[in-house]
From TrEMBL:
Pathway: Cofactor biosynthesis; thiamine diphosphate biosynthesis. Its EC number is 1.4.3.19. It comes from the Bacteria. It is an enzyme of class 1 (oxidoreductase). This is Glycine oxidase ThiO. It comes from Corallococcus sicarius.
């Protein structure tokens, strides 16, 4: 595509990652963000890179997540070299804890099918789990250990991606995108606060707001906000080495003693309030996993919106009209899927053959399945 113009709607990790890859390929790129780049879901996440923990089973989405996780080590190095920001990529592993026999059987099943795929996963009894994490609750009856599930500091990732994209020449503009501009059946730009910006391609990476962009072809309920409330605790020394999760939520220990605890999943529209009930559920989960956190001060609480889709799959690749491309609906896996989505969408925009079959992630997959 050479030096053709591309407009990227959305300045979170998806938008900035796509802008970085397109600019590196020689395209002129402008990122359009209505506030500070990365101020929404990208900054409100926990930075978990855990396809093995998150997955319900094998399939194209699981494979996509594994591919993206495999990119993260080099991705972190590249971003540090481009931006000077270390995103705190930690190959720490993850412990999925069970507190009753039924949940332990579920964990055992997960370990079984992942072993069948040649992935590293270890089933532990309660004693074995506490040998790995001594501060784990004595009530834990067992766990699955996923040593290849990792973490990053997502706020540092946002900063690094924004700086990297800017450093290679992407430009940023703030404003309200009123809609995608169409001419003769193709996307030719966007309306930014009444000003028409023209481009050869438009990438929609607006997260939970994607359905609100007029002319995007994304149905009103196709991508919806799912509120996730979060709590940050502080310990003098880290109590946990690994990410620790249960059926109720997760604890993400940072190297400096912070612990990110989350999260709720609520369909409440665009209401970003932190609620007493939400915090109570998160703190109850945290103390069940690690009782010693009871004395840890609460340093921060927040809520963010995850872009939810009905089938829990993202929209990646060509959109409903020529010149329009989609990168949205990543729900709980936005941070994890940033490297692979940036690569695939850049390939699509540049007219290259995507390195992954994007058919399962098409905007019209529902209609294709019904047909």
């Amino acid at each position: 595509m050479g030096t053709s113009d591309v407009l990227v709607v959305g300045g979170g990790v998806m938008g900035c990652g796509i802008a970085l890859r397109l600019r590196q390929a020689g395209a002129r790129v402008t990122v359009l963000e209505r506030s500070i780049p990365g101020a929404e879901a990208s900054s409100a996440a926990a930075g978990i890179l855990a396809p093995q923990w998150e997955s319900e089973g094998p399939g194209p989405f699981f494979e996509l997540c594994l591919r993206s996780r495999a990119l993260y080590g080099q991705f972190a190095t590249e971003l540090r070299e481009l931006s000077g920001v270390d995103i705190a990529y930690r190959p720490c592993g993850l412990l999925r804890v069970a507190f009753d026999e039924a949940d332990h059987h579920h964990v055992e099943s997960t370990v079984g099918w992942q072993h069948g795929m040649g992935l590293r996963a270890v089933l532990l009894d309660g004693k074995g789990a506490r040998e790995l994490e001594p501060r784990l609750s004595p009530e834990a009856v067992g766990a699955a250990h996923f040593p290849d599930d990792h973490q990053v500091d997502n706020r540092l990732l946002v900063r690094a991606l924004t700086m990297a994209a800017a450093r290679v020449g992407a430009t940023f503009r703030s404003g309200y995108v009123r809609g995608i501009v169409h001419e003769q059946g193709r996307a030719v730009g966007v309306d930014l606060d009444g000003e028409v910006l023209r481009a050869d391609a438009v990438v929609l990476a607006a997260g939970s707001w994607s359905s609100l962009v007029q002319g995007s072809g994304v149905a009103a309920q196709a991508v919806r906000p799912a509120r996730g409330q979060m709590v940050q605790l502080q310990t003098r020394l880290p109590l946990l080495e690994r990410i620790v999760t249960s059926a109720k939520g997760y604890l993400v220990p940072r190297a400096d003693g912070r612990v990110i605890a989350g999260s709720t999943m609520e369909h409440v529209g665009y209401d970003k309030q932190v609620t007493a009930a939400g915090l109570a559920r998160i703190l109850d989960m945290a103390l069940q996993l690690c009782p010693e956190l009871g004395s840890a001060p609460v340093m921060e609480t927040w809520a963010g919106f995850r872009p939810w889709t009905q089938d829990a799959l993202p929209y990646i690749g060509a959109g409903p009209v020529p010149g329009l491309f989609l990168a949205t609906g990543h729900f709980r896996n936005g941070i994890l899927l940033t490297p692979i989505t940036a690569k695939l969408v850049a390939q699509a925009v540049l007219g290259e053959k995507p390195s992954v079959d994007l058919t399962p992630f098409r905007y019209d997959r529902g209609a294709m399945a019904r047909g």
